[in-house]
Every structure is written in C-alpha cells, then in structure tokens.
Amino acid sequence: MPRLIILLALAGLAWWLWRHVSQKLTAGDTSRPSSSRSQQSSQKLVACEHCQVHIPEGDAYTDHDCGKTVYFCSPEHQTSWQQQRD
Ligand SMILES: [Zn+2]
C-alpha cells in the first residue's frame, strides 16, 4: 500500500512539473518581440552617387566628399566613384 501512495505522489509531482514547464513555454512564445521587421521598413532611402538607385540608408556604403556624406549601392560603385574623383 505505501508503494501505491509514493507512485501517486510521483505522478502528481510529474503532472505539476509538466504543467509548470508547458505554461512557461507558452508564455515565452507570446511575449517574443517582433518589432525588428517594422524598424527596417521605416528606414530612410538614399540615392547611390554613381547610378542613382535608391537603397535603405542602413544598407548603403558611405564615403565623404567635401564634408558631406555620399552613398553607394555597392562597394564596386564606391570604388569607381573614388577612382573618378582622383
Ligand atoms: Zn550604384
């Protein structure tokens, strides 16, 4: 008889633990932040100095010309602009 009580107690403990863990996992899923995408779409667009293609400021390659910042769509366009300037 005492063996059955221990078995029931263990089963109860296992059930309680399972409930506790699964509740925590569900709460973690719903509170996960999802704002990284909306931040990227609100970025300012800049024109490539070489081909005038517009790119997000964060993705652009930058250089400086007489104190002002110039933007490029690719490192290749940055290099050719630098060569034209020299
Ligand atoms: Zn370009």
Structure description:
It is a single chain. With 86 residues, the chain is of the alpha+beta class. It has two domains: 1-29; 43-86, Roll (Ribosomal Protein L24e, Chain: T), CATH 2.30.170. It is 53% helix and 19% strand. The strands form two sheets. The chain has a two-stranded antiparallel ribbon. It has a two-stranded antiparallel sheet with strand order 3-4. The N and C termini lie far apart (94 Å). The model has no long low-confidence stretch (mean pLDDT 86). Bound molecules: zinc ion (ZN). The site of zinc ion has 8 residues, from loops.
Annotate the secondary structure layout.
Layout: H1 2-30, H2 36-41, E1 45-47, E2 54-56, E3 61-65, E4 68-72, H3 75-85
Antiparallel strand pairs: 1-2, 3-4
The protein binds zinc ion.
Zinc ion is lined by residues 48, 50-51, 53, 72-74, 77.
Give the tags.
86 residues; alpha+beta; Ribosomal Protein L24e, Chain: T; single chain; two-stranded antiparallel sheet; binds zinc ion; 53% helix
Averaging pLDDT over every residue, what do you get? Answer: 86
- H/I helix tally: 3
Q: Find the structural class using helix and strand composition.
A: alpha+beta
SSE pattern, N- to C-terminal: HHEEEEH
**How many strands?**
4
CATH fold-type name of the largest domain: Ribosomal Protein L24e, Chain: T
Q: What portion of residues is helical?
A: 40-55%
Q: Give the biggest beta sheet.
A: 2 strands, antiparallel
Order of strands, main sheet, comes to 1-2
Q: What ligand species are in this complex?
A: zinc ion
User: What's the gyration radius in Å?
Assistant: 29 Å
- CATH architecture classification name of the largest domain: Roll
* Poorly predicted tracts of residues: none
Number of structurally distinct domains: 2
Strand content: 15-25%
Report, as a whole number of angstroms, the end-to-end distance.
Answer: 94 Å
CATH class of the largest domain: Mainly Beta
Global outline: rod-shaped
